């Protein structure tokens, strides 16, 4: 049975009328018929605005070194047990070459905030762009405007930086030596430098509520991000939140679905975290409106050392499995660049 107010809330979102109360109602759904109806509505919005496809992005985790101290993350600098590595330019180019050979046209270079020299990143971008026909997405954390500018000039196309939370107090409880305002400034810098910009949040972090998630979704709507990454919080044993529960699966899927209904166009991954939550739930993500999968191209020796959270799903994705996932979610696979779909960029 689906309540009248659930139909009403979804209809209003589909016709671009966004009210926080509707977001809260839909985020809170738990009854199977209503949850399935919400997720199906998100899928039809995705299919209409993004076409029926899954974009594949090759993820390369280039360094696990981090000077930051995010209290949820296994790479935080206080974790003395973490294994630290940093790939050389040559190693990274090998990963890119391997991905490009397999037809991938986007590589995502991700790392902890390792203070890698900005010029060496710029050289890396130049080398990639010279040799391979790929879009380059960076996910290297907070850096200065000048550094972002240099990397954009040398050819970086996109940047991922999650806001984690728009709630000042919650943000402070998650981060000890960074501020919400510096995160917002970085996102503004990236957008003003014409990066295709991605943001996002974790779902189920202690202290987060339906109301703060609704505010985060309103923020996504206001900022018109090109990409949005949303996945469940998974407690890491070497962090202050080790004893906490992981993010709830249904709430995570509802957050994806409501975000899709509100924002329509972004590329949204079925995240690795969703694939690591007692089993692989990435298909459920696709059935709730996501449209990206990021197979991991980090050299296998280093993959397990990039431990943001425990038991991170990191087996090398084979083509067969990806096609099975696509088939099960009635989508096709697209390895092309898959640039921003936001109308202002067309
Ligand atoms: N659980 C889930 N996601 C996490 N991230 C970091 N630590 C965790 C965790 N313990 C996410 C953050 C970050 C992204 C790269 O990974 O949202 O932005």
Would you summarize the structure shown here?
The protein is α/β, with parallel strands linked by helices. It has helices spanning 4-14, 20-27, 32-50, 89-101, 118-131, 145-153, 168-174, 180-192, 210-223, 249-263, 282-286, 300-303, 319-328, and strands at 53-56, 58-63, 106-111, 135-139, 158-160, 196-203, 227-232, 292-293, 332-334.
Question: What would you note in describing this structure?
Answer:
- The chain has 346 residues and is of the alpha/beta class.
- The protein has a single domain (4-338), classed as Aldolase class I (TIM Barrel), CATH 3.20.20.70.
- Helices cover 41% and strands 12% of the residues.
- The strands form 2 sheets. Strands 2-3-4-5-6-7 form a 6-stranded parallel beta sheet.
- Helix 1 packs across helix 2, helix 3 packs parallel to helix 10 and helix 9 packs parallel to helix 10 (249-263).
- It binds 5'-deoxyadenosine.
- 5'-deoxyadenosine binds next to loops.
């Amino acid at each position: 049975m689906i309540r009248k107010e659930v139909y009403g809330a979804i209809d209003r979102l589909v016709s671009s009328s966004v009210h926080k109360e509707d977001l809260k109602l839909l985020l809170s759904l738990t009854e199977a018929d209503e949850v399935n109806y919400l997720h199906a509505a998100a899928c039809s919005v995705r299919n209409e605005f993004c076409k029926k496809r899954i974009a594949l992005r090759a993820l390369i985790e280039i360094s696990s070194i981090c000077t930051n101290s995010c209290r949820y993350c296994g790479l935080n600098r206080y974790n003395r047990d973490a294994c630290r590595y940093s790939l050389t330019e040559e190693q990274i180019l090998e990963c890119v070459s391997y991905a490009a050979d397999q037809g991938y046209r986007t590589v995502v270079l991700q790392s902890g905030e390792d203070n890698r020299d900005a010029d060496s990143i710029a050289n890396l971008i130049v080398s990639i762009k010279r040799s391979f026909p790929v879009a380059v997405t960076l996910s290297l954390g907070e850096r200065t405007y000048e550094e972002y500018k240099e990397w954009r000039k040398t050819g970086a196309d996109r940047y991922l930086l999650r806001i984690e939370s728009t709630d000042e107090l919650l943000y402070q409880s998650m981060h000890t030596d960074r501020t919400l305002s510096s995160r917002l400034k970085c996102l503004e810098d990236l957008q003003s430098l014409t990066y295709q910009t991605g943001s996002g949040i974790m779902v189920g972090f202690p202290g987060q509520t339906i109301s703060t998630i609704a505010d985060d979704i309103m923020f996504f709507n206001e900022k018109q991000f090109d990409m949005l990454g949303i996945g469940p919080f998974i407690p890491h044993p070497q962090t202050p939140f080790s004893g906490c529960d992981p993010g709830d699966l249904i709430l995570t899927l509802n957050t994806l679905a409501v975000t899709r209904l509100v924002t329509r166009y972004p590329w949204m991954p079925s995240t690795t975290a969703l694939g690591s939550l007692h089993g692989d739930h990435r298909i459920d993500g696709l059935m709730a409106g996501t449209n990206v999968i990021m197979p991991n191209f980090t050299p296998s020796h280093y993959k397990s050392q990039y431990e943001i959270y425990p038991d991170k799903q990191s087996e090398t994705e084979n083509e067969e499995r990806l096609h099975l996932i696509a088939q099960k979610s009635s989508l096709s696979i697209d390895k092309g660049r898959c640039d921003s779909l936001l109308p202002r960029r067309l």
